[in-house]
Amino acid sequence: MAQGCLKCLKYTMCFANFLCFMCGVAVLSFGVYMMVNFRMAALTPTLASFNLANMLLISGIVITCVSFLGFLGALKENRCLLLTFFLLLFLLMLVELTAACLLLMYEGEIGEMVKEDLNKGLEKAKGKTGNSTAVMSEWDLVQVKLDCCGVYNRTDWGDKVPDSCCLKNCNSTNVQYKEKGCLATLQNFFEENFLTTGISVIVLCIIEVLGMCFAMTLFCHISRSGLGYKL
User: Fold this and answer.
1) pLDDT by residue (tens digit) across 45-100?
2) pLDDT band at residue 230 using 50, 70 and 90 as cut-offs
3) What's the CA gap between 218 and 223, in Å, rounded?
4) What is the CA radius of gyration of the chain?
5) How far apart are CA 73 and CA 89, in angstroms?
6) Using CA atoms in the order 170, 175, 179, 185, what is the torsion angle rounded to 10 degrees?
7) Fewer CB under 10 Å: which end of the chain, C or N?
8) Rounded to whole angstroms, how far apart are CA atoms 143 and 147?
9) pTM: predicted TM-score of the whole model, two decimal places
10) Distances (CA, A) of 152 to 22, 147, 182
11) Per-residue pLDDT at 151
């Protein structure tokens, strides 16, 4: 009976770690996507200083490594690996919840920083300050991908509206421009994905709690059985 319960715990632990591993791969993939498609260091230097893409990459690597550690500890019935897995998973969950709370608390301040950075980036792109070439290329990338123009609308560019603001008839006198600003587009993007992000964080925390519960249960069961340190 005890051996059957131990095997059940082992397989359940492996399944829970597989879910954690898949979440880690998803976070890692999203970090790579952000790094490739949203290079806005010159456009939003304040947010770029946090290096969001690298943070996601590191988080994905940590989650995948920790889940593998839990899988190995359950498979080998090793108490040291299981306890290490439990502590690392607990710390990881605390970091995730702290980051989510900080984003909620300082949502308004972050929005103001983005608006200020976009306005400064627009001035640089227009050639008034700094190196306008790199900033202009980032503006073109953002305006094409987000289908927007300027910070508030195309009038922000004055008389020199870039081609990335063009909607159609770009090379004619009846050219039509995108009227929606990039600031409003970014705000709508984050609002539309806010619920999905919140649900993802909650699901990830639930999976991590399950992993910790299974790890501690298996740890206690191995301790009572007199096993634990074999590799």
Assistant:
1) 555 545 566 777 887 888 888 888 887 888 777 888 888 888 888 888 888 788 77
2) very low
3) 8
4) 24
5) 13
6) -10
7) N
8) 5
9) 0.66
10) 39, 13, 7
11) 83
- Per the document, the length of the chain is 231
- Give the integer Cα–Cα distance in Å for 144 and 38: 12
Which residue is it, tokens 């919140």?
198
Measured distance CA(66)–CA(84) in Å, rounded: 9
> Is 146 within 8 Å of 37 (Cβ atoms)?
no
Rounded CA gap, 98 and 91, in Å?
11
| 129 secondary structure, DSSP code | S
Q: Give the tokens for residue 114.
A: 């983005």
Contact 31, 56 (CB under 8 A): yes
Q: Is residue 102 helix, strand or coil?
A: helix
